[in-house]
Automatic annotation (TrEMBL), chains A, B:
Keywords: DNA-binding, Transcription, Transcription regulation. SMART domains: HTH_LACI. Coiled coil: none annotated. It holds the Pfam family Peripla_BP_3. It comes from the Bacteria. It comes from Nonomuraea africana. Residues 7-61 form the HTH lacI-type domain. Gene3D superfamilies: 3.40.50.2300, lambda repressor-like DNA-binding domains. This is LacI family transcriptional regulator. CDD domains: HTH_LacI (cd01392), PBP1_LacI_sugar_binding-like (cd06267).
DNA sequence: GTGAAAGCGCTAACAA
DNA sequence: TTGTTAGCGCTTTCAC
């Protein structure tokens, strides 16, 4: 039972007593074919279990692979999973499949994935850039007309389409919400590395809110942690400060999870908290978690729509799409300082 | 700036003044090539930005596509996302890429995804079967030697490798845990459709535990809901029963989330709860959520290992791998009935 | 309505 | 050490 050879179009043709080209015509519903010929072809196709070879077809047609390559940092992160789902369902109806790889947030892996995708001649590239990458190496591809869209974060050193959350405005709104409830010392727990685009933008939003309210910025209130565990420890450190914050702004889903855990461990139900990115159990926490909700499926859908229009020949200017966020007050953000 | 033609191996060869075959030899590090020729080839490759065309290579080599097709029900579900991540990292070092599609739990979509993958001549197929599917249509492929592994749920009507969680034993253990804490009326909230493999297995485990303890089975305590919202409503219905349960077993992550929400809405902190599948915030809930934790990355890794060994020619008998679960007592499962 | 020949980009099997 | 020829499975082009 060693891998049996799959039947080819020629096999089908021989069996029917016609030429490969005729079979091709039937299968692609192209040009005139006698109804009875068509029927006989279909019958043999079924009997032999013939499956057209897409690789061969694409090659001959000179078409690119009917796939789009997607690079995300981490599949297990539901944020990126949902983004990927949004993309997949949007492009599927166009007959495109999605090839994914995860970069684990390293530029080396990202680049090797991109190289694999390019070698496969994918029709388009969708990339969540890794934190420290540089994307000048994609310039030639872009100029050759390959649609490339960056997601969640813009490219570095390359002018290209991108679709991102309204990070800065969302973070500003979340922080302003805390300020509106009387807080003057607000801790910030951000992602790692601190140079990460989303981290920087959200940090700017945080500072915008402070500035708008005329509040001083205290570097000592800024903490960092990439995992929930690290964020929990960060929250505990902030609370242990001599002059601790009365509220926390957690700038991503892991940070929010960690902050909740950290507050719980410290037994502090009096500290206000706003998270960036919603969590499934947010409403049943004690207190229920106030968040700045992102729209991951919307980000995926927007990126997919952009890629499809580029594939359709849209040569208009490069765009930067901001997908809006939404503040959802649930309780934890409305606590007032003691 | 219409899609410029990518340089081919022949373009490189002409530029260097050699034959395509020589370039091929350099790029594949195959056979003897004069060092200076190699250097010149590499230089031109770089200058032209040449990218080998994998489609053409695979076709000529008669090799299948260096990709494995993965069908999952839903990318946004972190359970499947983590499974996918486990697979991807395991196969990447073998130079394989993962092509994913989501079936949305429908057999039609699953089948069309599988057809796409087969047309692409993927090297192997990894499928989380949709709830109601029938997989006899894959028999020919299996017999032709294509490695096919089913995940999370076994195939229907087809003898094939599969990797699943130890659903029945895990559910038995979770339920027995509740019984050990004095509960005699335990509600079951399961997935939809009720014919779903994991739902049936976990339900069996639930009944096993009851039987072992000599407790009666009450059909009225069995509820269903696919989403967290539906599960929350189910929990509320159960609690509103004339003779309500004192404990709940929620048979998947959405059910567990929903049960937590439902109990919170009803203001019931006295009802014991055990969830199947862990949740990120389980430990900070009030009370902290006791779960039967699955090992999604382990499931992915096991499936990947199996596929790789099949690709390496392992023709031994079909296997069914059970990935163990682990009971994590945190509080909600240890509440005693009033 | 159907077929014959050529070729997509690459490599296997030879030969030189 | 390098080149030549042929062909993977399909579609294009043109002929019948």
């Amino acid at each position: 039972m060693a891998s049996a050879r799959r039947p080819t179009m020629t096999d089908v043709a021989r069996e029917v007593g016609v030429t490969a080209k005729t079979v091709s015509r039937v299968l692609n519903e192209e040009g005139p074919v006698a109804p009875e010929t068509r029927a006989r072809v279909m019958e043999v196709v079924r009997r032999l279990g013939y499956q057209p070879n897409l690789m061969a077809r694409n090659m001959r047609v000179g078409a690119r692979d009917a796939a789009i390559g997607l690079v995300i940092p981490d599949m297990g992160n539901p944020f990126f999973g949902t983004v990927a789902g949004g993309i997949e369902s949007a492009v599927r109806e166009r007959g495109l499949t999605v090839i994914v790889g995860s970069s684990s947030e390293t530029k080396e892996l990202e680049r090797s994935l991109v190289a694999t995708f390019l070698a496969r001649r994918v029709s388009a590239l969708l990339v969540v850039p890794s934190a420290t990458g540089d994307h000048r190496y994609l310039r030639a591809e872009r100029e050759a007309g390959l649609p490339i869209v960056f997601l969640d974060r813009p490219a570095m050193g390359l002018a290209a389409d991108c679709v991102v959350s309204s990070n800065r405005e969302g973070a500003r709104e979340g922080t302003a919400h805390l300020i509106a409830h009387g807080h003057r010392r607000i801790g910030f727990i951000g992602d790692l590395p601190a140079t990460l685009y989303t981290r920087r933008e959200r940090f700017q939003g945080y500072r915008d809110a402070l500035a708008q309210a005329g509040l001083p910025f205290d570097k000592g209130l800024v903490e960092t942690g990439h995992s929930a565990e690290a964020a929990a420890a960060a929250a505990e450190r902030l609370l242990a400060l001599p002059d601790p914050p009365t509220a926390l702004f957690a700038a991503n889903n892991f940070a929010a999870t960690g902050a909740v855990v950290g507050l719980a461990k410290a037994g502090r139900k009096d500290v206000a908290l706003v998270g960036y990115d919603d969590l499934p159990l947010a409403e049943v926490l004690d207190p229920p978690l106030t968040v700045v909700a992102q729209d991951p499926a919307g980000i995926g859908a927007a990126a997919a729509a952009l890629v499809l229009s580029r594939l359709d020949g849209d040569r208009s200017r490069i765009t930067k799409t901001l997908v809006p966020t939404r503040l959802i007050p649930r309780g934890s953000g409305e606590l007032r300082p003691r």
